[in-house]
């Protein structure tokens, strides 16, 4: 069902296969990808808002530290009608799993959910899954998603992973071709081979994944000149007043 090419380089395991996951609900606990933790994954804020789109909770937290749930996305150039290839970084703390979701509507319809987890029943090995989330009742259903270049690690409760999802297009969720999504971040439990409910800890506004700065606040520059109707005397008015005063003094003399 799934072919994984594992290449050993200097003791690190590098996953370069394209994975096609098809998981039915009745095999949810066993049909997943579980890897060793030898892969090193380094996730930072470098490039946020410039070369990659970043979301996190709490605001501006550091993914290299603790108590930060962070995700970034780098998009390829859109190719109609295929959408974009999306390279994602995900980092956070959980005794179960962390996940990032993309959806066209955060309150209805479905989300594409990508899960990075630790398998406590298998010595805390890194575990990878894709799910479909019902945004109305939070039901998780295994789904078929093509994912490439998966790398992940678990250190205590810290989980970090990187992966690439080809051909991401919101037309899968609505009628028009688009690269605009709401991004969800959250976590959940993983016990006895079963993924618990997805706890949404962050939900973005609608973001264009092809624009790294689409969630960077914009500021409005203060005006450099006073408006003419502000009540303040303008330079030409001051000159006219001085002329009148000078003429008045001359007439009195």
Automatic annotation (TrEMBL):
Keywords: Membrane, Signal, Transmembrane, Transmembrane helix
InterPro entries associated with the record: FRRS1L
The keyword Glycoprotein is annotated on this UniProt entry: no
Signal sequence region: 1-29
Bilayer-crossing regions: 233-251
Keyword Signal assigned: yes
Protein name according to UniProt: Ferric-chelate reductase 1
């Amino acid at each position: 069902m799934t072919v994984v090419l594992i290449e050993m380089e200097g003791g690190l395991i590098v996953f370069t296969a394209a994975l096609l996951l098809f998981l039915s609900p009745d095999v949810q606990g066993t049909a997943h990808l579980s890897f060793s933790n030898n892969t090193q994954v380094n996730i930072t804020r470098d490039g946020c808002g410039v070369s990659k789109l970043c979301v996190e909770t709490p605001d501006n937290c550091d993914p290299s530290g603790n108590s930060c749930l962070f995700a970034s996305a780098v998009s390829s150039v859109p190719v109609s009608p295929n959408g974009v290839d999306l390279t994602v970084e995900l980092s956070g703390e959980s005794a179960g799993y962390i996940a990032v979701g993309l959806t066209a509507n955060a309150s209805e319809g479905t989300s594409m959910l990508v899960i990075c987890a630790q398998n406590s029943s298998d010595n805390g090995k890194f575990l990878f899954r894709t799910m479909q989330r019902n945004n109305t009742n939070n039901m998780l259903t295994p789904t078929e998603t093509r994912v490439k270049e998966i790398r992940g690690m678990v250190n205590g409760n810290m989980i970090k992973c990187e992966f690439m999802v080809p051909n991401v297009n919101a037309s899968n969720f609505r009628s028009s071709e688009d690269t605009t999504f709401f991004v969800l971040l959250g976590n959940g439990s993983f016990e006895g081979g079963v993924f618990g409910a997805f706890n949404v800890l962050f939900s973005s506004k609608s973001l264009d994944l092809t624009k790294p700065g689409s969630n960077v606040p914009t500021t409005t520059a203060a005006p450099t000149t006073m408006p003419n109707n502000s009540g303040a005397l303008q330079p030409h008015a001051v000159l006219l007043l001085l002329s009148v005063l000078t003429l008045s003094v001359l007439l009195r003399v």
